[in-house]
Every structure is written in structure tokens, then in C-alpha cells.
Amino acid sequence: MKKIFLLIGIITVGLTAFSQVTTQELELVKSILKSERKVFFVQNMQLSTEEFNRFWPIYDKYQEEESKIQASVISDYKKMVNQSDELTDEDLEKINKNYFARRKKMLALQTKYYKIVKKELGIGAATRFLQIDRFVDATIRATLFSEMPLIQKK
Known about the structure:
By secondary structure, the chain is mainly α. It has one domain (about 1-145). It is about 85% helix and about 0% strand. The chain is built from six helices and no strands. The chain has helices at about 1-15, 25-45, 50-70, 70-80, 90-120, 125-145. It is elongated.
């Protein structure tokens, strides 16, 4: 559990100053987050070495597919933080549509990988996989949203 708070700290530091963050720094933060997320899974999945050997290839494929879905999050977030007063209705509509599309794709991806983990490691491991994944994502989202200004009425 302590590692997740480190994860939150890294996110907060990395994202609160988005306008000054270079692409290299952003990639470093993403790399650290990916690594810390994996550590959190190790600490909480409750798998044997043999089970982890079966789990990691599945997890890596999941992360690869998830990162493609989540690619537009950073761009939308930067717009919301750095240009919140300048966004047009069309900009906001596009950001919202991106969000809904990502949620739909993520639900399908989680369903797909729940079934894969369940088949390979059983329902307990599949449920823990979803719980951990949702917990980490919720923590990251809460951190992002705590730094995001609300859109002002126009």
C-alpha cells in the first residue's frame, strides 16, 4: 500500500507543472509509473513464482493494449489544465467524446483480460487483477482530477 502513495506522489509532481514538463520528463514519469504499477501488482496479486511466470506475459499484453487506449489522456489533460479558459465548446465536446470512447474501450479490454486471467489462473486471481488495476487507475485519476481546474461557465 505504501508504494501506491509513492505512485501518487510521482504523478502529482510530474503533472502539476505540465506546462514546464518536456517530452523526455513526461516519458520518464510514465516509465516510473509503469514500473511502480508492476511492483504494486507483485505485492498484491498473491501468486506463486510459477503463477507469476504465467501472469506476466498476460499483464504485459494488457499494459500494451491499455497504453494505446490511454494515449490521448495526457493530451486532453494538458488542454484542460493549460487552456481551460480558452477551450471552445467544440474542444470540450471532443475531450468528452475521447473520454467516453476510452471508457468503453477500457471496459472491453478489462473484460477480455479478466477472462484470460480467469482461464489461466482462476477466478480469485482474475478478481484481484481487476481490483488492483481499478484501484491504481482510480488513484491516478483522483490525483489528475485534483490538479485539474473546473471549466468555468461561459
